[in-house]
Amino acid sequence: MTELSGRSLTVAYVTALVLVALMSLASHLTLHQVLDQHQGAASVLNISGRQRMLSQRIAGLAGQWSTGDASARAALRASIDQFALSHARLRQGDAELQLPPASTPQLQALYFGGEHSLDAQVGEFIAKARAVEEMAWNDPAMPAALAPIYAAAREPLLGRLDAVVREHERTSREQLQLLQRIQNVSLLVVLLTLLAEAFGIFRPMVRRIAGYTKRLVAIASTDPLTGALNRRSFTDRALAELARARRYERPVSLLMIDADRFKAVNDTYGHAGGDAVLRALAGHLTATLRPSDVFGRFGGEEFAVLLPETGLVSAEIVAERICAELAALPVQSNGQEIRFTVSIGIAEFESEATDIKATLDRADAALYQAKARGRNRVVTDRALPSGDAPHFLHDAPLQPSTAAA
Predict the structure, then answer these.
(1) Where are the transmembrane segments (predicted)?
(2) What percent of the chain is modeled with pLDDT above 90?
């Protein structure tokens, strides 16, 4: 009887260890797969967001071409080609870029469902944009050809592109929830087994699962290129700071930072050079800002910094320091040194502000005014003329000999 009980205990112990090993392997493989899917979701969100900017850029460049700006024609053609290529990748997927195809029912409905599907709208928008690019700038039919492009860029197309981004964000959240459920089930099984058999296996398991969770949270909340907070996470942190500032009646300011002539940097040094500039900009701000400051990337070359406990005068001092330090910051890429500058717009939150939109709009207006005044400078919203509002600016091509300007 004692021998049988001993054998039973041994079998139970070995079985428990095997179960732990199998659960560890299953958790590792499952979480690794979700990580890969999340990486693809991050790429999708990045390209989807760029599609919205490209639609506005195409409309702006088409308008420039209609005024006789010859340099806008080549840029318009390139933007249309990039818009069409990105749309095809988002629709069909791209294994090299880890982009999954638009395979969920919701995405299928957005892309292909109904008479006004996104696929049809994009195709029509591209065709009309190419028609404008092929026309002579002084063609009498140009105004009529521009009208549907402007209209599409303002609402129907932009609205559908926004819907695609929201759907990808929803899918990303569902994947995080799936990971949470997998983690909970795996943790419960392992914990119950280890409580009965072997506490020595428990701690390494928890460390690994916690590590996966931390990586997923980082992927979901930060920009993969620069490590800065993404727009959604920045907004959440900013709202929390605003609530604290209202409670204690403390000032809060917002900086909008945009790299000058960034398209020209990409044209001169390639996208690797542009990425190096963005990483250097983000790395410098991360290293020099206070731990309490909130720093995020809003898309493209535009970044935002929330400064708690900081009024407009102090924020302007911080911005001037950032502007000067970045202008002196050399960036190395493919054996070349890149110099770049930034323009910064500043706005202070009203004492009763409950969201960031109004202040963001004022900081954007100040940023565009800094661009209009020659770039590489700081402008506060109080320095703006009455009624000033953001407007679209195009950076001039960057010549290799003046790349540091």
Answers:
(1) 185-206
(2) 41
Question: Residue 98 — very low, low, confident or very high, per pLDDT cuts 50/70/90?
Answer: low
Instruction: Mark which of 221, 244, 275 sits at the end of a domain.
Output: 221
Residues 163 and 29 in one domain: yes
Q: Are 156 and 252 within one domain?
A: no
- Asked whether residue 242 falls in the same domain as residue 389, the answer is yes
Question: Is residue 312 located within the same domain as residue 179?
Answer: no
Q: Which among 79, 81, 104 has a CA at the least distance from the CA of 91? A: 104
- Which amino acid, one-letter code, is at 173? R
Say whether both 8 and 149 belong to one domain: yes
CATH number of the domain at 261, please: 3.30.70.270
Q: pLDDT tens-digit profile of 243-257?
A: 999 999 999 999 999
Which residues lie across from 304 on neighbouring strands? Answer: 256, 296
φ and ψ at residue 66, rounded to 5 degrees: -70, -20
pLDDT tens-digit readout, 289-342:
999 999 999 988 999 999 999 999 999 999 999 999 999 999 999 999 999 999
* Domain that includes residue 150, residue range: 1-221
> Parallel, antiparallel, or unpaired: how do β-strands 294-299 and 252-259 relate?
unpaired
Residues 212 and 346 grouped into a single domain: no
Buried b (16+ CB within 10 A) or exposed e, 299-331: eebbbbbbbbbbebeebbebbeebbeebeebeb
- At 393 the pLDDT is 39
Under a CB-based contact definition with an 8 Å cutoff, are residues 153 and 129 in contact?
no
Do 38 and 147 have their domain in common? yes
Our count of domains for the chain comes to 2
Instruction: Say if CB 363 and CB 316 are below 8 A apart.
Output: no
Share of the chain above pLDDT 70, in %: 79
Average pLDDT over residues 192-211: 60
